[in-house]
User: Which sequence fits this backbone?
């Protein structure tokens, strides 16, 4: 098991290095850098002024050198002006005139993520705040989505071909086939609109005091999460994700229920509930466990539409803002976080798969 973990961690490090270089290359293309210069220095500057701005800010160096600076394995670029002040990549960490205290390297390995040109703040602060907001959303989505999906999948797979199976399978397919931007708009129209849906009816009956039943804007959840301001984004994401998990669980459960040891247990007179809970369920959860772990990277990066729709400034919303405003440092930091989340969840998935399947553990 130790050698397995070491191999997987080694592969993770190489994969992370390759993926971050690809993202760094794509975000530092000449056209992107020209756009960045015009965004920061003025949209009407000439090509010569663009080249001068890029040179003053260290973007004129070779790609591999700048990638090494960003990682922190190559000394950061520096320039001493005529008045004795120093400018450079690492200069923002110290006073402009304190050249001796300026670190030689400042990159990812030293914990320096750069500064966001969109939010005018250190990237580490922006990422940590937005990642925490999305973490809360992911937690509640998983709490709602996973149990519901497993219940639907197990109930459908216990008796293949029954009316329950057909009804639950139809529900799972419909939920997966409905995009988040459709279900989100429907939820807002039905439950969070003061002119249409159920809210005007409930107001006229005197059942609610406010103008709407639920809040269509989830920004207030950053200060205090309540059922009324957080339910709609959670329901929108959970409904879309649970159908896929339920279908995988149903297929796995159906396959397990046809195995020989299940038939033997039934012939011995073991109750159907004990067969499902003690014999079939653990083996049936191997495939769904892998799918559930794959939902975590999707929840981190794939909720951009939901976060924008409900005005919830999480990680996906920040990624959208960084891409729309050509914030290179923030894009790079977000890509690193996304790559690490994907690789770590894959590692956890592999470990869980080995634990659930003794045959893999023995081999």
Assistant:
């Amino acid at each position: 098991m130790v050698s397995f973990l070491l191999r997987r961690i080694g592969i993770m490090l190489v994969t992370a290095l390759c993926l971050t270089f690809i993202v760094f290359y794509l975000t530092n293309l000449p056209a992107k850098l020209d756009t960045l210069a015009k965004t920061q220095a003025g949209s009407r500057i000439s090509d010569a002024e663009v080249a001068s701005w890029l040179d003053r800010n260290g973007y004129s160096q070779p790609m591999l050198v700048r990638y090494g600076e960003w990682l922190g394995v190559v000394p950061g670029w520096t320039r001493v002006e005529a008045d004795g002040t120093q400018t450079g990549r690492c200069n923002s960490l110290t006073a402009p005139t304190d050249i001796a205290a300026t670190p030689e390297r400042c990159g990812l390995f030293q914990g320096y993520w750069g500064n966001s040109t969109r939010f005018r703040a250190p990237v580490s602060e922006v990422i940590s705040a937005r990642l925490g907001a999305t973490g809360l959303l992911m937690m509640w989505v998983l709490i709602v989505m996973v149990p519901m999906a497993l219940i639907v999948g197990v109930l459908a797979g216990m008796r293949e071909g029954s009316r329950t199976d057909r009804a639950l399978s139809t529900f799972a397919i419909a939920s997966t086939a409905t995009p988040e931007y459709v279900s989100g708009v429907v939820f807002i129209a039905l439950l969070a609109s003061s002119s249409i849906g159920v809210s005007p009816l409930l107001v006229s009956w005197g059942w609610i005091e406010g103008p709407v039943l639920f809040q269509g804007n989830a920004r207030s959840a950053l200060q205090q999460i309540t059922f009324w301001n957080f339910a709609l984004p959670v329901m929108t994401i959970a409904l879309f994700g649970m159908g896929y998990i339920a279908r995988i669980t149903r297929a796995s459960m159906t396959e397990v229920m046809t195995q020989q040891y299940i038939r033997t247990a039934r012939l011995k007179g073991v109750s159907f509930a004990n067969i499902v809970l003690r014999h079939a369920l653990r083996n049936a959860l191997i495939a769904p466990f892998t799918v559930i772990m794959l939902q975590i990277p999707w929840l981190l990066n794939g909720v951009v539409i939901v976060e924008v729709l409900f005005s919830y400034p999480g990680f996906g919303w920040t990624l959208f803002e960084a891409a729309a405003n050509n914030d290179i440092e923030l894009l790079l930091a977000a890509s690193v976080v996304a790559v690490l989340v994907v690789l770590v969840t894959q590692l956890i998935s592999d470990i869980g798969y080995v634990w659930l399947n003794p045959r893999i553990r023995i081999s």
Notes: Strands lie at 78-80, 86-88, 115-116, 121-122.
